[in-house]
Write a structure and sequence with these properties.
By secondary structure, the protein is an alpha+beta fold. The chain is built from 10 helices and 11 strands.
């Protein structure tokens, strides 16, 4: 519980503000900012809440446009926010401010592109009854496309009453919210660049899952035990040396690296994604735990090759999905008894083994997995 008189770091502000609001502390003001998207929203959320979402009902159906006004009640006392630490501190840095956090959570909850503009109206005890208007200072980035959409599922018509759940973030621990917002920011960023740079979008989408997997994995047992399970031979050799505290120090220093692929796959399977609501007649993935685990392992291996060897994701995985028989889920068709189909371009060829899934359906998987994980955070004791 945040205490009324304590000085707090100016970080994770959407969470801390919500926490303070539910501690029945004084509301210092109200601000409004715009969320931009290329999706079309129906409904709105405007009860007596910390964060309300007002539908702006844009007439234009094309391109990025102002879609929502977020009305935020602020329980944050500016005089009690610390913007400078005595020592370097980046544990909760995610590259954004208060409004960016809200937009990232909107993006993750709905599975849409969402960008936060700057405050366009502010209310306080010093402003007129109708508040003070402000000029927009943070317009959305351009959405660059080379033709057919690589991730067509990110643009949708969707009902938004589920955004009311963003007002429950105060129920999370600060540690869990820190992981949630970092994961959401990676997910949000991946959708903005997926059309112009799908290879980088793959990296960000995997990172969104990896952040969540790290949070989930730290709750699964003692770090020394996970060190032992991941590196049993090294663990036994260290035991032989019997240096006091050495095993604990190594387990702490390399906590995030032990069994990275296994941790990633276990997390994705634990929150097994729902199958898309509409499946294609051709190019359909076998939606079983065993097959999805193989796909997750392949994706994580490709991510490692991209990061450490400079080898981009296969081009078929970065291309628009085939749409002859519904949106295909496979990047390359699986082999049949007569031949193994390949896709070739840019001097390279790939089979189903190297490129089993396209970015569009992986976006669907990531959205489903992360929202199931998000819901699980509220069930922790």
């Amino acid at each position: 519980m945040i205490q009324k008189d304590e000085i707090m770091r100016a970080s994770l502000l959407s969470y801390k503000n919500c926490k303070l609001f539910h501690s029945n502390l004084h509301v210092f003001g109200i601000s409004e900012f715009i969320v931009y998207s290329d999706s079309r929203f129906t409904g709105e959320v405007k009860e007596d809440l910390v964060y309300s979402f007002l539908n702006m009902l844009p007439m234009d159906h094309v391109g990025i446009k102002p879609t929502l006004t977020v009305r935020a009640l602020s329980a944050l006392d500016p005089a009690k926010l610390s913007f400078m630490d005595e020592k370097p501190n980046t544990d909760d840095y995610h590259g954004g401010w208060f409004s960016d956090e809200i937009a990232a959570l909107v993006s993750l909850k709905l599975g849409v592109r969402a960008h936060a503009g700057s405050n366009v109206r502010e209310y306080s005890s010093y402003t007129p009854d109708y508040g003070s208007p402000r000029a927009e200072q943070n317009p959305p980035p351009p959405l660059m496309s080379k033709g057919s959409l690589v991730v067509p599922s990110a643009k949708k018509n969707i009902e938004i009453t589920q955004l009311k759940l963003l007002n429950d973030i105060y129920k999370l621990s600060e540690k869990d919210f820190n992981s949630l917002i970092k994961s959401a920011r990676n997910f949000q960023d991946s959708l903005w660049i997926c059309e112009s740079s799908p290879n980088l979008a793959w990296l960000l989408m995997v990172s969104a899952l990896e952040v969540a997997a790290g949070n989930w994995d730290t709750d699964k047992g003692d770090k020394v035990e996970r060190f032992k399970a991941s590196r049993p031979e090294l663990f036994e050799r260290l035991l032989e040396h019997n240096v006091s505290g050495l095993i604990e120090d190594i387990a702490t220093q390399f906590e995030g690296t032990f069994g990275a692929t296994k941790k990633f796959c276990d997390f994705c399977v634990n929150f097994l994604p729902d199958a898309p609501p509409v499946r294609p007649d051709s190019g359909r993935i076998e939606w079983t735990e065993q097959n999805l685990r193989k796909i997750f392992r392949t994706v994580y291996g490709l991510r490692s090759s991209a990061l450490h060897a400079g080898k981009p994701f296969p081009q078929p995985m970065c291309s628009p999905p085939d749409n002859h028989f519904g949106l295909a889920e496979e990047a390359v068709c699986p082999p049949n008894p007569n031949f193994t189909p390949l896709k070739a371009t840019m001097g390279s060829s790939w089979s189903y083994k190297e490129a089993p899934i396209n970015l569009n359906v992986f976006f669907h998987m990531t959205h489903s997995i992360l929202n199931k994980w998000w819901e699980s955070l509220y069930l922790k004791e």
